[in-house]
Amino acid sequence: MEYTQNALAEVIRQIPSPDKEIMDEIYRQWDKKAKPLGSLGRLEDIVAALGGIYGTVHPSTGKKGVIVMAADNGVVAEGVAQSDYHVTTQVTCNMTCQDATVSILAHMNGAQVFPVDIGMYEDVTCPGIIDRKIRHGTANMAKEPAMTREETLAAICTGIEIVAELKEKGFCFFATGEMGIGNTTTSSAVASVLLDCPPETVTGRGAGLSSEGLSKKIRTIKNAIHDRKPDPKDIVDVLGKVGGLDIAGLAGCFIGAARWRVPIVIDGFISSVAALAAVRLAPTCRPYIFPSHCSAEPAGKMVLEALGMEPYIYAGMYLGEGTGAVMAFHLFDTALEAYNKIPEFEDVHIEAYEHLK
Ligand SMILES: O=C(O)c1ccc[n+]([C@@H]2O[C@H](COP(=O)([O-])O)[C@@H](O)[C@H]2O)c1
Ligand SMILES: Cc1cc2nc[nH]c2cc1C
């Protein structure tokens, strides 16, 4: 696709609605099952939503992929993170040899990890990293816009394309992840603008920042928003001025998943900010997006609330990479197993059930 505003608008225009009739039918099927009405709670909603997306009353999750957008952030020069781009490179490379945490958790949950270099500072030759580098890290948003509008659109469109390419290869259920030192600074800046909340409310310690570092991080975000003046009504402007290539790429993944009719799961804080940006850009992508856990970053819950989503898991995690999202894969499979295997009241012959029929 062309990496333009018009091409993006065309993809958004083509997002289909989930099939409402199939969703209603799935709820009717649940109500026939040998269990108290509604007693599987949100697992029942998961199956109905998946059925509506796939267009079948017998949904299954199929091949699962974790898309990890890896990128560096120029703002790290301001001392807002505990480490630097070397860690982005190392952890992303570890994803190709099953050493990264997300690789371990993805393996146990039956998913394959796809690390995408959308803007790492270093060039890597690790086989297994998808090279879609737009630039070698962003500019320092404290001094200038993190990226141009063209670069931002290229990152969003790259996310859309990655989903399309993986769907071609048979992947039909996605988790989102990211790797990029400094990306809790950019995510907090974007959250501050999109939620219209002061930086001190939405900024945390990221990957283990000191108290002194946290004050500097809040000051840096405040100044960047003041100086760059991102327009909250223009999401591409916000992502470009105070966001990052990873956040923009993930926003594209959420839009792409909706366009190509596949479910996609949010991970932690950075991923949820990308989902919020995607939904503000394209409200029709919302039904294709599922929450997983609630990041321990202070704005983790706020961003999910703005999306109207309640996380399934509260585990105090703040690792990123897609780790919380792949954990939720198990929950989706559990919901489908229950739906497919619980017999209907008509088929069970237990006297104790008779009065419930
Ligand atoms: O996803 C989260 O909720 C999350 C919260 C804090 C940190 N992280 C991870 O830590 C890195 C960003 O932290 P920082 O302090 O460098 O901005 C990045 O690689 C993220 O994957 C992730
Ligand atoms: C080791 C390490 C692993 C990570 N994974 C995601 N962000 C990270 C940050 C660090 C520092």
Features:
single chain; 357 residues; alpha/beta; 5,6-Dimethylbenzimidazole Phosphoribosyltransferase, Chain: A, domain 1; Rossmann fold; 6-stranded parallel sheet; 9% strand; elongated; binds nicotinate mononucleotide; binds 5,6-dimethylbenzimidazole; EC 2.4.2.21
Walkthrough of the structure:
The protein is α/β, with parallel strands linked by helices. The protein folds into two domains: 5-59 and 338-348, Nicotinate-nucleotide-dimethylbenzimidazole phosphoribosyltransferase (CobT), small domain (5,6-Dimethylbenzimidazole Phosphoribosyltransferase, Chain: A, domain 1); 63-330, Nicotinate-nucleotide-dimethylbenzimidazole phosphoribosyltransferase (CobT), large domain (Rossmann fold, 3-Layer(aba) Sandwich). It is 48% helix and 9% strand. It is built from 14 helices and six strands. It has helices at 5-13, 20-32, 41-54, 85-94, 101-108, 149-168, 183-195, 199-202, 211-228, 235-242, 245-259, 269-281, 300-306, 323-341, and strands at 63-71, 111-119, 130-131, 171-179, 264-265, 289-290. Strands 3-2-1-4-5-6 form a six-stranded parallel beta sheet, sandwiched between helices. Strand 5 (264-265), helix 12 and strand 6 form a beta-alpha-beta unit. Helix 11 packs across helix 12. The protein is elongated. The termini are far apart. The model has no long low-confidence stretch (mean pLDDT 97). Bound molecules: nicotinate mononucleotide and 5,6-dimethylbenzimidazole. 5,6-dimethylbenzimidazole binds next to helix 4.
